[in-house]
Backbone:
């Protein structure tokens, strides 16, 4: 299986890869939980859908506050032409007051005779057409140069793409042209090793305040990555990211000082078929984690880790209607939900197919009182008490 290291940058695309000789599993949900006051709470929920041939159809993201209140609901929607080429990506926000998706902006893609993208047109819902990116690519559709014209401002952006090695490393120089004079240059580097792991990411900058050396770039942000693998399985166990910054020295000397800020740690857990199930993020030196990401797939092997904690969390509890049930037991596929009264009477049941840790269930038809929630999935079983108080 292809190793997965750039989770935070390319989750939608990387997690759809697998090499078991069967139908490739596809990432369908990513839940980010933040850690606060000795517990995790759901911060965002990303849902990915696909076309039958495997292309991404939509990526929808919901964000919540600490109390579980939905703050925003946005999505990217993808359209394809008769040759199965992406021709439009639309970003929308959902207005739940009127039950309507509203477009924020969209990008239209145009191809050359070799099937490579040669132009991207950007439109806003308010303001209409904003400008175009023009690309020069090689025979493999790899970008070599890009130039953007912006109708609303008197500047032009130019990118040159450099690939310094055979490891998919990439260097971009971004130049901003304003009133026919070069004012500032940004240089971004992504350096990979032979396995495809990101080992260094740097953003350089220079402008009129920099020393009068046209070749001088000064580090603004720099990240270094190291990886720890399981010697037996080859799976990634932890990733460490060191972060350096030179923000305070962009305009004042010494320009070349890059100061260490902090070190981040990412720990990974897996389903029994080798797919990443959990990524926990923490700052080295702190006792508590910062957040974690939970990953769910379609087309994966049905397997489950018996050592995981199967406890049920109900929110809100007491409740007067809809509740959110959180449990790892949902990971193993179809789960039977049953609700019993204290006298042992079955008052509600539902079969849940989704593998998401979080499931919303409407129990507004139940009377006030105490109930027992049962979750059963094959040999896995868990219970919890619920109080209905209308």
Residues:
């Amino acid at each position: 299986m292809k190793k997965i290291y750039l989770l935070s940058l390319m989750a939608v695309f990387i997690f759809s890869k697998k090499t078991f000789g069967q139908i490739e599993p596809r990432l369908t949900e990513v839940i980010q939980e933040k850690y606060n006051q000795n517990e995790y709470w759901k911060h965002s929920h990303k849902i990915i859908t696909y076309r039958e041939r495997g292309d991404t159809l939509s990526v929808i993201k919901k964000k919540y506050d600490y109390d579980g209140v939905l703050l925003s609901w946005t999505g990217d929607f993808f359209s394809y032409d008769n040759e199965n080429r992406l021709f439009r990506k639309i970003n929308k926000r959902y207005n739940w007051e009127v039950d309507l998706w509203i477009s924020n902006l969209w990008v239209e893609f145009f191809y050359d005779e070799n099937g490579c993208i040669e132009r991207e047109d950007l439109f806003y819902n308010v303001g209409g057409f904003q400008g175009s990116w023009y690309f020069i690519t090689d025979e493999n559709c790899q970008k070599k140069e890009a130039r953007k014209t912006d109708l609303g401002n008197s500047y032009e952006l130019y990118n040159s793409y450099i690939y310094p090695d055979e490891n998919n490393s990439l260097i971009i120089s971004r130049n901003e042209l304003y009133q026919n004079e070069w004012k500032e240059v940004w240089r971004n580097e992504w350096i990979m090793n032979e396995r495809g792991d990101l080992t260094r990411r740097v953003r350089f900058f220079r402008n009129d305040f920099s020393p009068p050396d046209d070749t001088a770039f000064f580090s603004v942000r720099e990240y270094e990555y190291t990886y720890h693998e399981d010697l037996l399985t080859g799976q990634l166990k932890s990733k460490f990211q060191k972060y350096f910054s030179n923000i305070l020295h962009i305009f004042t000397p010494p320009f070349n000082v890059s100061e260490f800020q902090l070190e981040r740690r990412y720990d990974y857990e897996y389903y029994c078929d080798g797919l990443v199930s959990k990524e926990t993020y923490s700052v080295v030196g702190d006792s508590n984690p910062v957040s974690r990401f939970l990953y769910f797939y379609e087309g994966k092997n049905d397997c489950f880790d018996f050592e995981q904690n199967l406890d049920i969390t109900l929110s809100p509890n007491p409740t007067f209607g809809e509740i959110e049930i959180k449990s790892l037991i949902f990971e193993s596929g179809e789960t039977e939900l049953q609700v019993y009264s204290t006298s042992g009477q079955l008052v509600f049941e539902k079969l849940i197919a989704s593998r998401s840790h979080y499931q919303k269930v409407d129990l507004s038809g139940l009377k006030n009182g105490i109930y027992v929630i049962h979750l059963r999935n094959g040999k896995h079983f868990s219970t919890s008490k619920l109080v209905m108080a209308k």
About this structure: Residues 7-14 form the longest helix (8 residues).
